């Protein structure tokens, strides 16, 4: 128990943490190119926020949240996703008073009580963006383009961008009526969840993973075939912009974001390269959300979230290696106590000049120190012994070529800057 992390969580050790740093840096770099700035919000929020924003009828709220009462008897939930917090912070900090749109990105751990399996954990991590304050299809195109550039620069070439329109409150109402009529006829062959959703949120039945439901829903009417002119124009414009950017996409009628305030564009990005066919990124427009949780009326928003663990799996499946950038420039081998003491001055000077350097902390023999220097792949080894101390010099050994030379300590940094 003491030496086992809770089920569904994983340590990220130095064997992998450099990959995370690389992905985070790359994501920050791409966000910056597109003008998205970081929003950091608390790990926990009031439970009510997620109920309202993620939605009472979703799996997340119904089954997956880590909720508890704190010592002040507040209902608290560890964030299961990033949008709710970002949007709450947008309202609370009155970002709507600045020039719009507000373009935000976040990097955050998320918590969902799910059955752990490959690419599914209880604590996982998301990168996401939110563009708030524009209902123009050009921002939809921008959000998708940002995700595509991020994945492409990581080396994932065979991407499938699937887009759909989930309509708006106007066309949704007519469609929901049609859909309910259809579902009423099927009610005896559908699962309980689907029958329940039929009343509250019928479009969500399309998302049902139950194989029986999937077989029986093959001729289900889709929202996109019933959207109004306004939604049609929005979708057409989005496609036009994507074509202009040479972004390959397909229209997938089955993508749904089944809440009332989700509107128009919904999309997913799947990596088609060899290996797992999993959704790494999902996003969509949420035009009613901000108003729903108490923000200014009519504030639109669109965003996406991508799972970092799934992204790493996808990269692995595609044989895309991330190199560990860490290397030790210098290891200092010391012979005797006086030399060890002297090595600290040298270490300070080297590190102060941004040359990475290390010395022995285990009282190893000279031979063992050289072995260790080899093991950590130091580029050069510096030897300080009695002779060197007397002459204020050190022996510098190139670990690749085994070449050695004696260098004055006062000249060492200059010499190293030449060879490193
Ligand atoms: P799924 O259908 O796989 O459960 P989801 O619809 O719940 O996904 P979203 O809420 O859209 O996923 O979250 C965005 C991304 O976060 C997903 O595409 C996925 O990459 C990642 N993700 C979601 N849940 C988990 C989890 N439990 N563990 C790891 N990654 C996850
Ligand atoms: Mg899920």
Automatic annotation (TrEMBL):
Main localization category: cytoplasm
One biological process term in Gene Ontology: histidyl-tRNA aminoacylation
Residues in Aminoacyl-transfer RNA synthetases class-II family profile domain copies: 1-325
GO MF term (any one): histidine-tRNA ligase activity
Binding of L-histidine, residues: 81-83, 112, 126, 130, 257, 261-262
Swiss-Prot/TrEMBL catalytic activity: tRNA(His) + L-histidine + ATP = L-histidyl-tRNA(His) + AMP + diphosphate + H(+)
Top-level EC class as recorded in UniProt: ligase
EC number(s) recorded for this UniProt protein: 6.1.1.21
Family matches, as Pfam families: HGTP_anticodon, tRNA-synt_His
The UniProt record lists the keyword Ligase: yes
Gene3D superfamilies: Anticodon-binding domain, Bira Bifunctional Protein, Domain 2
GO cellular component: cytoplasm
Complexes and interactors: Homodimer.
Membership in a protein family: Belongs to the class-II aminoacyl-tRNA synthetase family.
Protein name (Swiss-Prot/TrEMBL): Histidine--tRNA ligase
Organism lineage: Bacteria, Bacillati, Bacillota, Clostridia, Peptostreptococcales
């Amino acid at each position: 128990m003491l030496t086992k992390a809770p089920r569904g969580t994983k340590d990220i050790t130095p064997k992998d943490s450099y990959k995370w740093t690389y992905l985070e840096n790359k994501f920050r770099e791409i966000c910056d190119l597109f003008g998205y700035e970081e929003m950091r919000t608390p790990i926990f929020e009031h439970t009510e926020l997620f109920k309202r924003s993620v939605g009472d009828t979703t799996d997340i709220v119904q089954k997956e949240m880590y909720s508890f009462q704190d010592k002040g008897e507040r209902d608290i939930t560890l964030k299961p996703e990033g949008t709710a917090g970002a949007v709450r912070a947008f309202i609370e900090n009155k970002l709507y008073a600045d020039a719009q749109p507000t373009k935000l990105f976040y990097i955050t751990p998320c918590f969902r009580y799910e059955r752990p399996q490959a690419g599914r954990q209880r604590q996982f991590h998301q990168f996401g963006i939110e563009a708030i304050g524009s209902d123009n299809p050009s921002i939809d195109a921008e959000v998708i383009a940002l995700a595509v550039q991020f994945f492409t620069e990581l080396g994932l070439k065979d991407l499938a961008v699937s887009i759909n329109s989930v309509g708006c409150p106007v066309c949704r109402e007519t469609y929901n009526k049609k859909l309910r009529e259809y579902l009423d006829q099927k009610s005896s062959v559908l699962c309980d969840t689907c029958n329940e959703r039929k009343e509250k949120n019928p479009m969500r039945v399309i998302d049902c993973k139950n194989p029986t439901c999937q077989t029986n829903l093959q001729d289900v009417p889709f929202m996109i075939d019933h959207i109004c002119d306004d939604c049609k124009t929005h979708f057409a414009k989005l496609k036009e912009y994507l074509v202009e950017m040479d972004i390959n996409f397909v229209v997938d009628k089955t993508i749904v974001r089944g809440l009332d305030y989700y509107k128009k564009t919904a999309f997913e990005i799947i990596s088609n390269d060899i290996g797992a066919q999993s959704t790494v990124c999902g996003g969509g427009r949420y035009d009613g959300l901000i108003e729903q949780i108490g923000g200014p009326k009519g504030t639109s928003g669109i965003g996406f979230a991508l799972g970092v663990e799934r992204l790493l799996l996808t990269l692995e499946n595609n044989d895309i290696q991330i190199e560990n950038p860490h290397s030790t420039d210098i290891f200092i081998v010391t012979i005797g106590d006086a030399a060890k003491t002297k090595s600290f001055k040298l270490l300070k000077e080297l590190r102060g000049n941004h040359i990475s350097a290390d010395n022995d902390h285990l009282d190893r023999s000279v031979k063992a120190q050289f072995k260790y220097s080899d093991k950590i792949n130091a580029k050069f080894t510096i030897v300080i012994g009695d002779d060197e101390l007397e002459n204020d010099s050190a022996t510098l050994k190139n670990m690749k070529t085994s070449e050695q030379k004696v260098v004055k300590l006062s000249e060492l940094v200059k010499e190293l800057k030449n060879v490193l």
